[in-house]
Inverse folding.
């Protein structure tokens, strides 16, 4: 059975213009339960992790100011969120959920977070709706525990936006290979250097995208020989997305997920999946595209 982290939403504490994109975090679990993809027992409520697990990838000074609401107005604008204690509780719970997913995936093969993929968070700052980098923290946790047997990690970031914070955090960490396949003209305008960046032109379609992915990912598995995979499965690659510049169909997005998760399953690689972005005008398009990721995982595992 799948394990799925589901953090409290706290949407009431956000301005009205932030609430629509957050609806998917409530609607997706309802969709999965209504379809019978997973039982209610598959969901767990994540807890905030120990501070030490956060400080492996974040500066103490930044984390202290984040905890105590001392970000400058400029820093708040960069994150896109007004600070509140409820927002901080959600962000730490999301990170704690990805950490717990990593522990569960070692046993179960896969675990998923209904949130996460906060790949724009750097060691010393947040950007682009990301305050704390959950996948980076979970990868660092696994590597800090020799008893868990994880020596090398592969981060497969297929959100439409480059994982700039993740790339910067692991820029000098050879045990973590960062792979980002994203829209060349999408945010962030100033890109960092991942171990492998594939910047795609506007309008990239299913065939081009999937061919490139199929020609790349098996090679990365062979060359890096990871013991663990983190997958960021953003659905902002859809042609309908308001913020993306790519042109994948929902079926193309589903095939993308099936390929990545199928390879992990085939190679017996534990994988943690985080949702990432999705900003299509119709919330049903976002929820169904995200639900495909969970449907595929449920079929494979």
């Amino acid at each position: 059975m799948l394990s799925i982290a589901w953090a409290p939403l706290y949407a009431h504490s956000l301005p009205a213009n932030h609430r629509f994109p957050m609806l998917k975090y409530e609607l997706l679990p309802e969709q999965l339960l209504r379809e019978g993809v997973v039982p209610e027992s598959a969901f767990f409520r994540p807890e905030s992790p120990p501070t030490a697990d956060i400080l492996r990838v974040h500066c103490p000074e930044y984390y202290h100011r984040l905890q105590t609401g001392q970000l400058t107005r400029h820093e708040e604008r960069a994150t896109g969120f007004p600070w509140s204690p409820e927002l901080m509780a959600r962000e730490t719970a999301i990170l704690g959920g990805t950490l717990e997913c990593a522990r569960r995936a070692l046993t179960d093969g896969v675990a998923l977070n209904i949130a996460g993929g906060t790949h724009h968070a750097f060691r010393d700052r947040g950007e682009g709706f990301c305050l704390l980098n959950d996948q980076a923290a979970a990868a660092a946790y696994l590597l800090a525990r020799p008893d868990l047997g994880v020596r090398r990690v592969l981060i497969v970031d297929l959100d439409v936006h480059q994982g700039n914070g993740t790339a910067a955090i692991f820029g000098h960490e050879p045990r973590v290979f960062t792979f980002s396949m994203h829209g060349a003209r999408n945010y962030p305008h100033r890109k960092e250097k991942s171990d492998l960046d594939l910047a795609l032109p506007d309008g990239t379609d299913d065939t081009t995208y999937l061919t490139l992915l199929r020609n790349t990912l098996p090679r990365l598995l062979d060359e890096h020989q990871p013991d663990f995979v983190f997958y960021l499965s953003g659905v902002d690659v859809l042609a309908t997305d308001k913020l993306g510049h790519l042109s994948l169909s929902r079926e193309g997005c589903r095939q993308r997920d099936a390929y990545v998760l199928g390879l992990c399953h085939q190679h017996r690689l534990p994988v943690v999946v985080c949702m990432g972005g999705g900003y299509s005008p119709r919330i049903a398009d976002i929820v169904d595209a995200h639900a495909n990721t969970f449907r595929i995982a449920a079929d494979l595992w």
In short: Strands lie at 4-5, 43-44, 110-113, 153-157, 176-183, 196-200, 228-232, 271-274. The chain is about 45% helix and 10% strand. The mean pLDDT is 95.
